[in-house]
Amino acid sequence: MKRTLDLVLLIAAGLIAWEAMHLAAPFALTSPAASLAKAWSMVLSPVFWPHAAETAKAFAYALLLAVGGGLVLGLSLGLNRTSAEVAEPIMISAYSLPKVTLYPVVLLIFGLGLPAKIAFGTIHGIIPVAIFAMNAVRNLAPVHMKTARVLRLTRWQTLATVVVPGALPEIVSGLRIGFSVTLLGVLIGEMFASQRGVGYVIMAAIGLHDVPTIMATIVLLGIVAVSASAF
User: How high is the pLDDT of residue 16?
Assistant: First the structure.
């Protein structure tokens, strides 16, 4: 209940601030009401849905690869303390690099189209998921692992009955962040080199200085992100 109330208050504060900025610069921002109306018209338009479907397809593949690869990498490293201590600073340093600089390389390898967007989204999401999973395993109480050894559990039994259940809260936190940054990566990929997708819609609107479409698309993406975070 408290979480829902906090979310409602946060949204209300954001809408008030948005309206204030619109009044201060009406040519730079549309009002919340106008943006919502434009967003609703886009949802009803058959032109928008092929772009949304393209983004959803790329995002689904990228999220699957980022989550699967990140969990395998993170859990594997977390079970070996030495490997985790060596890998953590490397992964943090790699993630701090601006991903946009890698996009030409991604295009050279995968070419224009869906594979490049999937790859770029995966690059954004896999490292956060891996770091959270790795640290979740490292933060397990030592007594849990000792108990597994006393019970002579196999590596897979230990992973399934001790490691994953104990590390699950932190893993879920990593999955939430992975969800957001993977979507961001896919959208950036569409903005740079694509002729379909929600990112392309934003870039086309920027080129035409179509502020209502820009704001409406941001509203739709915000609704998706907030809805995903609520689960």
Answer: 86
Instruction: Say how many CA atoms lie within 13 Å of 32 toward its Cβ.
Output: 12
Q: CA 205 to CA 190: how far, in whole Å?
A: 13
Degrees to nearest 5, angle at CA 11 with 41 and 208: 40
Long-range contacts of 136-140 (CB under 8 A, 24+ apart): 136/74, 136/78, 136/166, 136/167, 136/168, 136/169, 136/170, 136/171, 136/174, 137/74, 137/75, 137/78, 137/79, 137/84, 137/163, 137/167, 138/78, 138/81, 138/84, 139/167, 139/170, 140/166, 140/167
Say which residue the tokens 């340093």 belong to: 93
**What residue has token string 């829902």?**
4
Burial of 15 (0-12, 13-18, 19+ CB in 10 A): middle
Alpha-carbon distance of 214 to 228, in angstroms, equals 21
pLDDT tens-digit profile of 88-120?
A: 888 888 888 777 777 788 888 887 788 888 988
- Which tokens belong to 144? 């849990």
- Buried-exposed string 165-193: b where 16+ CB fall within 10 A, e elsewhere: ebbeebbeebbeebbebbbbbbbbbbbbb
Token pair recorded at residue 38: 């434009």
Contact yes or no for 130/70 (Cβ under 8 A): yes
Measured distance CA(215)–CA(31) in Å, rounded: 9
* Model confidence, pTM: 0.84
User: What separation, in Å, do the N-terminal and C-terminal C-alpha atoms of the chain show?
Assistant: 14
* SS3 state of residue 15: helix
